[in-house]
Design a protein that fits this description.
Layout (H helix, E strand, L loop, with lengths): L2 E5 L3 H12 L3 E5 L15 E2 L9 H24 L10 E5 L2 H17 L6 E5 H4 L10 E5 L3 E2 L2 H14 L4 E2 L8 E3 L2 H12 L4 E12 L7 E4 L2 E5 L4 E5 L14 H13 L8 E12 L5 E4 L6 E5 L5 H18 L15
Helix pairs in contact: 1-5, 1-8, 2-5, 2-8
Keywords: Oxidoreductase
GO molecular function: oxidoreductase activity
Protein name: Glycine/D-amino acid oxidase
Length: 344
């Protein structure tokens, strides 16, 4: 039985530990702050694809991961008994002018080819979609069936429960045992950059809010850069900001108030819904803007899984698979743009 140490219990660390344990590895999972203590403890949970054009390795990887998500989370829930709040509920985006309509129709065609018939990107009339839809100047929206939602904290809790069922607790401190995978988020990017003597990424602050509003299994909305995500527990997430300049990493401020006002303007039905939580945290963004995966340069037996930024939950099933392949089977399926060297 192979020993593996995973340092970091955010979504990457938890998912990698799960994938390794499922293959029979003896996993040690270590995080001094507990599960989901960083960016993975947020509230948004938008699992949404990049636009289906200018295809590249990052988009192909993300497609695979989004398609893997349903069986991945089904197995997690079946093992640990807790729901991650996952649902492939789709996404709606308004089409506000002729240029946007032209692009949407072009992308509908490329999605047919690139998404392999496993999901669709369609232009639809608002009247055909139903009452839960963003305002659109043309009366048309983009409806994609690849997007999904999950509740980040519930997803982390579901993985913790599944790992616990397999006899893998989260330890606050312990020595390394076997290959070591560092999935340590924004702080890890900083320490790795210091060791390598060059910046390889940075922390980006995000702020988000959670409203008490039950939209059941309605699609998520993406309006003017803003995500509105109905969760299965009767809440609705609004997010998020992307701030590179900040003084308080976990404090909310007027920027979040602006975000909430934008959401109320985009979807007036939300007026009167109470804000039950305001959240802020740091998300790790690698210089390449893709997840950073692979061997730690000049540290034999050490590996990195970092840089999830805004797409960490959507990328997690595939990240877990390729990292388990690499560490357990010495099989390297990491795209060139995802390698640590791409951010150096």
């Amino acid at each position: 039985m192979t020993d593996v140490t995973v340092r970091g219990a955010g979504i990457f660390g938890l998912s990698i530990a799960w994938a390794c344990a499922r293959r029979g590895a003896k996993v040690r999972l270590i995080d001094p702050f507990g599960p989901g203590a960083g960016a993975s403890g947020g509230v948004v949970g938008a699992l949404a694809p990049h636009v289906p054009e200018n295809w590249n390795a990052k988009k192909a990887f993300q497609l695979d991961s989004l398609l893997m998500a349903e069986p991945f989370w089904h197995d997690v829930q079946a093992t640990g008994g807790l729901s991650p709040g996952y649902g492939r509920t789709g996404r709606l985006q308004p089409i506000n002018d002729d240029r946007a309509l032209e692009l949407a129709r072009q992308r509908a065609g490329t999605a047919r080819d690139l998404w392999r018939g496993l999901a669709t990107w369609q232009v639809r009339k608002i009247s055909d979609v139903g009452p839960w839809t963003p305002p659109s100047a043309t009366g048309l929206v983009i409806h994609d069936t690849l997007s999904a939602r999950m509740h980040p904290r519930q997803a982390c809790a579901a993985l913790v429960a599944a790992l616990g069922t397999m006899g893998i607790p989260i330890e606050t401190d312990a020595p390394d045992r076997g290959p070591v995978i560092h999935a340590t988020g924004a702080a890890g990017l900083t320490s790795l950059g210091a060791e390598l003597g060059k910046p390889i990424g940075n922390a980006v602050k995000g702020q988000a809010a959670l409203l008490r509003f039950d939209a059941a299994d309605a699609p998520q909305l993406f309006v003017d850069g803003l995500h509105l995500i109905p969760h299965a527990d009767g809440t609705l997430a609004i997010g998020s900001t992307s701030e590179r300049d900040f003084t308080d990493p976990t404090g909310t401020d007027a920027a979040l108030g602006v975000l909430i006002e934008r959401a109320l303007t985009a979807l007036p039905i939300l007026h009167g819904a109470p804000v039950i939580e305001r959240w802020a945290g740091l998300r790790p963004r690698a210089r390449s803007r893709a997840p950073m995966l692979g061997p730690w340069p000049d540290r034999r037996g050490h590996f990195i899984a970092n840089g999830g930024f805004k797409i960490g939950f959507g990328m997690a099933p595939k990240v877990a698979q390729v990292m388990a392949d690499l560490v357990l089977d010495n099989r390297d399926g990491i795209p060139t743009d995802f390698r640590v060297e791409a951010s150096m």
